[in-house]
Structure formats: structure tokens, C-alpha cells
Amino acid sequence: MATENLSAVLYSVNDLRLENRAVPQAQKNEVLLRMDKVGICGSDVHYWVNGRIGDFVVTKPMVLGHEAAGVVHEVGEGVTHLKPGDRVAIEPGVPCRSCDYCKGGRYNLCLDIVFCATPPYDGNLARYYTHAADFCYKLPDHMTMEEGALLEPLSVAVHACRRAGVTIGQKILICGAGPIGLVCLLTAKAMGASSVIITDISESRLEVAKTLGADHTLLVGQEDAETLSKQVAGKLGQPSDVTIECSGAESSIRLAIFGTKSGGVVVLVGLGPAEIKVPIVNAAVREVDIRGIFRYANCYPTALQLVASGRVNVKPLITHRFSLEETVKAFETARTGAGGAIKVMISCSD
Ligand code: NAD
Ligand code: ZN
After folding, report:
1. Which of 129, 156, 206, 259 has the fewest beta carbons closer than 10 A?
2. Same domain, 189 and 285
């Protein structure tokens, strides 16, 4: 029986502590997991630095982490599809299952969703953690636990590309080459995009994007969005069929609209300031559809298949690795981007 459960607990702004908590027990239809790999997401860092994201405020100590994979340690009553020793990716949001959104398949919009490391719910950056068994996906033997953890951001990309209607032969603009922009690049390519241009304000991130298969890159500076949109069209040979905005910056959302062809689609993935100025009439009269996305629904199985089949290789995203004991150092690395950090991975098992 495990007794020690070292956990990374955020108390308040800049106060992230490692402490020993009780090992939870698997309830009905849950599994107790021995956590293995947990990636640090921008939102984890944001809670650490600001203590809140919009209306979600850290008011009591909260375990961080939600991009995770673990090994089944014990199964609760009623669990039949998993057994101790199974390696699983953990979909971090468990919805109510009974509201109209849940029943309609858009469970990411459920008002009662319990999502790891979104206040007031604990995440899984710990040695042990319990989770709804049906939100755990068994990994094939040839997939690594790190790949399992990366199914979380990859699922965001799958959802964004689905909402965008990405399909074979399209020309696509992706704004922002952070981890999310990069998984959108990989996914759009896997879904058949013929040409992808990706933007960033950082040359080094664009270099990474090139190695991951970007056909074109665009380093953006102080130019206005309309000027930049002409450069995008120049490189793609036309304005984009679909644009996936992954920075949240106002200037970038402006480019997303100007850079998309009439009748095209802009998907807003990046979440920046709550209110911004955008060329809305330009979008309206050119019938450019602007769609938001929030996390994902029914995307984990697809993300898993993309990796298992070899169509998407997420491994190059991981630039740094730390142990659970080194969590604060890992967060510091993710925050500063030191050493070209893209995805920082924490190992909870050694
Ligand atoms: P990140 O901060 O690592 O990446 C953002 C990238 O955008 C950086 O590389 C940055 O240099 C670049 N950038 C900044 N200003 C720019 C500009 N004007 N033009 C082009 N690029 C610019 O973050 P991430 O982890 O990759 O996440 C990206 C965004 O997606 C964040 O806003 C995050 O909150 C959001 N997000 C949304 C969802 C959702 O469900 N909607 C899910 C996950 C992440
Ligand atoms: Zn619901």
C-alpha cells in the first residue's frame, strides 16, 4: 500500500510547494493512478504567476498539472476496461454527463465540468491521483508516457482543426508558434493541409516550426495586419482557406481576419485580453466565419491514433525534463522559456 503522495501544490501567487498528501482511494468507476509524466501548460504557469485566469481564482491550495499520463495502480468498483499495470493518457476534464451539452456531445461546454488544476479542482502533478476510468485511454505498448501526456495539447489541436473544417489540399495560416500553434501545425498537416504558414514574433520558435514541417514562416514585428496579410497571401499563393490563431495577441487576431480568404474560417484558440479591437466589418462583408474553441470534446481517441499511427510526431516538442522534486525549477524554465523551452515535462515516477 502506497502511503507517500508527494504533490505540487499552489498556495498562492509564486508560492508553489511540494507536500505530502494522503493517497486517494479509487471510488466507483474510478482508477487510482501512479502518475508518470506531466507536461507544464501555459495555464499552470499563469496560475502560479497570477493566481487566476479570468474568473477562475486560486482561493485555496490546489495541485497543479493536467497534461498527464499514468499507470493504473488500483481499479475501483465497476471498472472493467482497465486493469492494474495499464498505461493510460488522462483526459483531464470530467463533465456531468447529464446536461444538454454533455448529451449533445459537446461536453467541453458543460457548466459542471471538473477539470484538473482549474480552481477549485486539484490537478495531477503528484505521485498518486484518482480519475474517472472512462476518461483514461490505454496507450499501445509502442507509445511512450511522454507521448501520452502530450495527447492533451494535441487534443486542443484536433478540436481546433475540426472546428476549422481543415481538410485535404487546404492552405492554412497558423498565428503563433508556441506549443499549441506547433501541435496545430502537426495536426493540420496530418489532416491533409497542403501548405501551412506559421507566424511568431520569435525567430527561434519559427525555426522549430520549420523542423516540424511548416512550409512557410513569417516573423512579425510592428507591421500593420493588412500589410502582413499581403505577405501571407504572397507566400501561400492566396489568402488562407483557414486560419488558426494561437497567440491571443490583438495584432495577431487582426492578421488572422485580414489573412483569411472570403468565405474562409478563423478559429480563435489563443486567449489574450478579454476585449480587443478587430476588423469585424471586414470579416462580416467577406463572410469570414470566426469560431472559438474551448479545450476539446471527443478528441483524445483521435489524438491517440494520430500518434500511435505515426502520422504525428509530438516528441520534438519536449525540450526539458525535470523530476517532481524539481517542480519549481521546471516551472521557472517554462515561465522564462530559458534554453529555448517549448514543452517542459515533469517525471513523477523517479
Ligand atoms: P505560448 O505563450 O507558449 O505561445 C504563444 C506564441 O505566440 C509564442 O510563441 C509567442 O511568441 C507568439 N506570439 C505572441 N505575440 C504574437 C503575435 N503578435 N503574432 C504572432 N505570434 C505571437 O502559449 P501556448 O501554450 O502555445 O498557447 C497558445 C494560446 O492558446 C494561449 O493564449 C493559451 O491560453 C491558448 N489556449 C487556448 C485553449 C482553448 O481551449 N481555447 C487551450 C490551450 C491553450
Ligand atoms: Zn454536463
Report:
1. 206
2. yes
Domain that holds residue 11: 6-150+314-347
Of ligand 1's listed atoms, the one at least distance from the Cα of 294 is 40
Note whether residue 50 is domain-resident.
yes
CB within 5 A of ion ligand 2: which residues? 95-96, 99, 102, 110
Determine the pLDDT at residue 2.
75
Tell me, yes or no, whether 50 and 133 share the same domain: yes
Q: 62 in a domain, yes or no?
A: yes
Whether residue 324 is found in the same domain as residue 260: no
Spatial distance between the Cα atoms of 118 and 266, rounded to a whole number of angstroms: 27
Q: What does DSSP say about strands 260-268 and 289-292: parallel, antiparallel, or unpaired?
A: parallel
CA 245 / ligand 1 centre spacing (Å): 8
How many other β-carbons are positioned within 10 Å of the β-carbon of residue 204?
12
Same domain, 326 and 278: no
The finding on whether 271 has its CB within 6 A of some atom of ligand 1 is yes
- 54 and 95 housed in the same domain: yes
Under-50 pLDDT residues of the chain: none
Q: Which residues contact 278 (CB under 8 A, 6 or more apart)?
A: 250, 253, 254, 257
Q: How far is the CA of 99 from the centre of ligand 1 (A)?
A: 31
Mutational test site, ligand 1, from 108, 200, 342, max ligand atoms within 8 Å of CB: 200
Which residue, by CA, sits nearest to atom 27 of ligand 1? 180
- pLDDT tens digits, residue range 78-120? 999 999 999 999 999 999 999 999 999 999 999 999 999 999 9
User: Ligand 1 atom 34: the closest Cα is on which residue?
Assistant: 271
Secondary structure of residue 275 in the 3-state scheme: coil
